[in-house]
Amino acid sequence: LTNRWGRILLALVAGVAAALVHPPFNVWIGLIGYPVLLLLADRSQRVRGAFWMGWLFGFAYFFVGCWWVAEAFFVNPEQAWMAPFAASLLPAGIGLFIGAACALYRALKPSGLARIFVFVACFSLFEWLRGNILTGFPWNPVGASWMAGSAPSQFASVGGVYGLGLVTILAACAFAPLIEAYKNRKSVVMA
Fold this sequence. Notes:
Order of helices and strands: HHHHHHHH
Largest sheet: none
Oligomer: single chain
């Protein structure tokens, strides 16, 4: 996408889609959000652009995935006015980690199939940092997308939730070349 507003909208939709993979929604097609984010970061002309695509994705991802934080403010009606701030500022801050992952990925400028592995490594590194820096915010890691007790979730016994997240993003991002090929084929047909 060359249209700036289209890219912004696509980053937000990809973030929402990825968040909907988590229980209780379990919308598995949302895994497509990760390869879309990879392609958005790839197509960013500068590191700063990749950061903003990642931040928008992260904001939408955590806005949907951390909706429950705002509910705590409704326990005491006198504090309800703080709910919108909690619901928007928390995702805005945590989204910085995904933005930083995309910026690092873009700064490394990988090419070929290596870019999938570099993207997954950057994303996984910053997800781990998000869960551990300053006591962390380990909510909604990608590895928690799988329903507890399901076959894929069993890998967490070997690699932990971050290892399961790495494998999940790697599997999802393996579709990025197919998305690119489809987009390129579609633009050739339309020309």
